[in-house]
């Protein structure tokens, strides 16, 4: 399916400065948000207890809070609507691991008299387990980021590698900023979403970079901006179709998955948009601004091909017993 004409070159870098300024502003706003507001960590990382309750009609949140305040376990619990007016979620930082009674039964007893309801979910995480999950999640993220950076550095000329690494950091920080701003619970599902964003973002960037390298070798044009515009234009149908496919799948999760999926679906939704945008308007633009020279690159490639040909020649002579 062809969404963009193959023979038409779009001037993606023509408005590069405007898009880069927008990225710059978003990036530093995200850093400011993360530094000042921080994250709303879920019980996966902080430890505690979450009880999800569904009422027959609209949940009487005020009555629920009054009832919970009378019990020491739920004295400082947070009560909020969860997906619909009938459902609420009760969060407390207190660990209930040591209770002899089931926490669902305890909650049912406390809320007796507030209306007809059912306990739909009870999650409990001890503080030690929460600390372990937080450390392991951060470790997985940093190891993945480091592996991607090493792979890109090894595979591409340093200007391409530097631009790709900056683009990845750009995507992750802005996604973190949106999560912080909208106070989405940051849990183990959010870490999974961020790892997927890393892979998606670098995959999109590599597709563009590979096409740029092909155009440098195949084209007689020495204008690098024109080569980049040609390469990006040739990948647009593929990029758009892939991005839209992922976007609509994640959008479905976001709209119909409920609040329980929000920690995964929201970062993914933002990450797909930002990752697609950055592969065109950040990663490609940065390579141009680093002063990449088409002439020097072609000379290096010609030298490598010459050395490879000499090696192949010597190997062939050795195999034939000439050397």
Automatic annotation (TrEMBL):
GO molecular function, one term: protein-transporting ATPase activity
One Gene Ontology biological process: protein transport by the Sec complex
Chief location: membrane
Keywords annotated in UniProt: Cell membrane, Membrane, Protein transport, Translocation, Transmembrane, Transmembrane helix, Transport
Domain Protein export membrane protein SecD/SecF C-terminal: 110-290
Segments crossing the lipid bilayer: 12-35, 137-154, 161-182, 241-262, 268-292
InterPro entries: SecD/SecF_arch_bac, SecD/SecF_bac, SecD/SecF_CS, SecD_SecF_C, SecD_SecF_C_bact, SecF_bac
GO CC annotation: plasma membrane
Function summary: Part of the Sec protein translocase complex. Interacts with the SecYEG preprotein conducting channel. SecDF uses the proton motive force (PMF) to complete protein translocation after the ATP-dependent function of SecA.
NCBIfam families: 2A0604s01 (TIGR00916), transloc_SecF (TIGR00966)
HAMAP family registered for this protein in UniProt: SecF_B (MF_01464_B)
Protein name: Protein-export membrane protein SecF
